[in-house]
Amino acid sequence: MLAGRRIVLGVTGGVAAYKAAYLTRRLIEHGASVRVVMTPTATRFVGEATFAALTGSDPVVEMFGGSDPSPHTTLAAWADVIVIAPATASTIAKLVSGESSNALIATVLASTAPVVIAPAMHTEMWEHAATRKNMATLQGRGYEVVPPEVGELAGGDVGVGRLADPDAIVEAVTHVVADGPLAGLAVIVTAGGTREAIDPVRFIGNRSSGKMGNAIARVAAAQGALVTLVTAADDPDVSGVVVVSVESADEMAEAVWSRLDGCDVAVMAAAVADFKPATVDPTKMKRVSGPTSIELVPTPDVLRGVHESPDRPFLVGFAAETGSLEDAAAKAKRKGVDLLVANDVASEGSGFGSDTNEVTFFYPDGTSKGMPLLDKDDVARALWKEVQTLRGMD
Ligand SMILES: Cc1cc2nc3c(=O)[nH]c(=O)nc-3n(C[C@H](O)[C@H](O)[C@H](O)COP(=O)(O)O)c2cc1C
């Protein structure tokens, strides 16, 4: 359920900070990407190197002096969810007042992501009127609270205040994520470029990497959708979605068309071959006897098949153009899609294999909306926002 989710984990200065290392590991095991932000006091309890080793990136501790001139806004924009575990009484008070004096508080204030908070402290601190009032305020703001447990505390005392079990925190995060804007939506995404066999070793292919389709699948899953990715790409960089690997246009058509029952949205981002060899040589063709030409026949039109299906879902098509996008408006009408995403694959930053894309949305009524050059993940987010708006899900 956490596959593809981007979690900012805030660690504060309490004894239980060492348990945040195990929590990081559990979140990653559940498929999440984790970045850590520590209060300066937290570094007195657990080393930055531990989180760097677990997550693959240095935790943010200081607001100034690092490679990122604005780490708190970077983290804030990146996060799907912010988790603060353990949360000290001090951090809880600062969150209430909005005292943005360290990178963690600044990140929370700069973000619109949901917040999961797991307090840990001595019983007296937890039961103090100030903490109780502060917790009530945060709950009133919609924070998901994972309350501390009863148990042995640092110093040998026994009482309420021990950090909740990391798996209970993972469960709370999963619960928050399942409430995403696409929760419960059944989605099919196609990705990659199909390969049309000439003989057992050769094929006609294209330069599609599958990155755009993968991003669309990943973001949809992160926002709560149930995603099936039908892909012709070699290594789909996704988890937490059902992956159906195919090779040819025929296989992709069959895989998609047979899964339309119950599908709410289909996003056809794959580069499907328009033609395939009329015959496939059963043995490797030899240079000496090889043909000088290959007869081609049309492949099935996957998009049209979805459009004409009695189970037709909300349909998003992709158009990879080179040069002008003029044809895309006509294509949006001709193909019967609800939304066409067109891009100029010859332009800088938008080519196959690139991590960025500059797309234009075309609507069936002939209107369009251009988007700036964005990361493919951000294009995917914009696409799903558009789908929500067009389907009246906002
Ligand atoms: C040994 C030790 C253990 C502490 N454990 C906790 C704790 O579990 N919970 C808590 O709220 N404060 C605890 N504190 C106090 C916090 O470290 C202190 O309030 C600090 O200002 C918190 O800063 P931060 O919230 O910015 O990380 C502890 C202090 C010490 C010296």
Describe what you observe in this structure.
The structure is a single chain. This protein is α/β, with parallel strands linked by helices and 394 residues long. It has two domains: 173 residues, Rossmann fold (3-Layer(aba) Sandwich); 205 residues, 3-Layer(aba) Sandwich (Rossmann fold), CATH 3.40.50. 32% of the residues lie in helices and 23% in strands. It has 13 helices and 21 strands. A hairpin with a 5-residue loop joins β6 and β7. Bound molecules: flavin mononucleotide (FMN).
Features of the shown structure:
Rossmann fold, 8-stranded mixed β-sheet, binds flavin mononucleotide, alpha/beta, 2 domains, elongated, 21 strands
Helical fraction? 25-40%
- The total domain count is 2
| Name of the top-level CATH class of the largest domain | Alpha Beta
Report the mean per-residue pLDDT as an integer.
91
Counting helices, strands and paired strands, the structural category is alpha/beta
